[in-house]
Specification:
CATH class of the domain at 91-147: Mainly Alpha
Strand order of the largest sheet: 2-1-3
Oligomer: single chain
Radius of gyration: 27 Å
Largest sheet: 3 strands, antiparallel
Shape: extended
Amino acid sequence: MEEEWIKDLREFVCEPPDKSEFFQTPLPPVNKGAKGWFKHTEESKSKITGRPSGFNHSKDWREQKSSQMIGKDNHFYNQKHTQETKEKIIQRHYKMWKFVSPTGEIVEEYTTLRKFCEKYSLDRKSLHNVINRKANHHKGWTVEEVAQDPLSSP
């Protein structure tokens, strides 16, 4: 029995598979959706989530979950972040930003995007679209590159 299994395995490994059988089923259409290159159908979305599309939790369920997070039932009730944790949270938002101003001047700063926008009177959401290449510029500001955080380890 074991010899037959080894023989079958050798035949399977040594013989290349017939590739035509892999290409008989057509590939699903690929189109650029709102968040990427492939947009799921409603059927595939419901299979992914494991519940029918349009599903909403009942009002009672939402109220119960909400009440579980209020007061003493909250897992973080009567606790505070340590100063070290607060610094880590703040440092997570700091990056080396490299922008080109409307006058053509290259501006490099190690700061948060929020502080950069406040300093130059820019809209943070619009500048974020420039960074993510969803917009070419904001008030003449363009992004040359977003450098890696110089303080973080690779």
